[in-house]
């Protein structure tokens, strides 16, 4: 199968996810800047989630640059990833509305870790469609950042019960680590 429809569908779903997240931001009825202060937790959680969705979109795009074709298993693995990404608006809104309460931060971390696992599964499904000498296989390598991310998410989930702000800071640190798109694929495609 050609990869184009999968990429177009994924782009559309991700655009809808971002739209739903921004629609959760409620406009204050007061015109003073102080009216924005109570909204900072909601806006802060939105910014973090927007960055995460952007990171997934960017890396998904880079990943599919090295893909020649897809099979049915890849379609399901991609849907699995999109499922977890589609939960971002819910956990983002819940965490922000409840001022980063421990349970909400832990659930946010749970969705982050499941999205990371789903991305890993998608990569493995793609690798199964390509031979070991393909540009994709050469580019993937050991995926150090992906493995470290899962560890940080797990630590953040555990930390959320006692120090939810520290957990959010850890989640933000992982996002910062991923702000630069994965260059392995770009380097491989240039050769």
Automatic annotation (TrEMBL):
Where do the TM regions start and end?
6-23, 35-55, 75-96, 103-122, 151-180
**UniProt-recorded Gene Ontology molecular function terms:** potassium channel activity; proton channel activity
Its placement in the membrane is given as: Multi-pass membrane protein
What keywords sit in the KW lines? Answer: Ion channel, Ion transport, Membrane, Potassium, Potassium channel, Potassium transport, Transmembrane, Transmembrane helix, Transport
| InterPro entries, per the entry | TMEM175-like
Compartment list? Membrane
- Pfam families xrefs: TMEM175
Q: Quick one: where is this thing mainly located? A: membrane
Cellular component GO terms, alphabetically? membrane
Instruction: List where this protein forms a coiled coil.
Output: none
Catalytic function, reaction form: K(+)(in) = K(+)(out)
Q: Which family does it belong to?
A: Belongs to the TMEM175 family.
By what name is this protein known? TMEM175 family protein
Taxonomic source organism: Horticoccus luteus
């Amino acid at each position: 199968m050609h990869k184009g429809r999968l990429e177009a569908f994924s782009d559309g779903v991700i655009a809808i996810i971002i739209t739903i997240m921004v629609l959760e931001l409620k406009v204050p009825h007061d015109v003073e800047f102080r009216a924005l202060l109570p909204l900072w937790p909601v806006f802060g959680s939105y910014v973090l989630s927007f960055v995460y969705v952007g990171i997934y979109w960017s890396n998904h795009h880079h990943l599919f640059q090295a893909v020649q074709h897809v099979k049915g298993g890849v379609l399901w693995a991609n849907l699995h990833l999109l499922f977890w990404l589609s939960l971002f608006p819910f956990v983002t809104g819940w965490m922000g509305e409840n001022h980063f309460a421990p349970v909400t931060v832990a659930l946010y971390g749970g969705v982050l870790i499941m999205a990371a696992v789903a991305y890993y599964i998608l990569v493995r499904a793609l690798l199964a469609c390509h031979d070991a000498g393909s540009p994709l296989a050469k580019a993937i390598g050991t995926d150090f950042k992906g493995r470290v991310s899962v560890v940080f998410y797990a630590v953040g989930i555990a930390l959320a019960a006692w120090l939810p702000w520290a957990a959010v800071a850890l989640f933000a640190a992982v996002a910062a680590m991923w702000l630069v798109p994965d260059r392995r694929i770009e380097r491989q495609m240039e050769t």
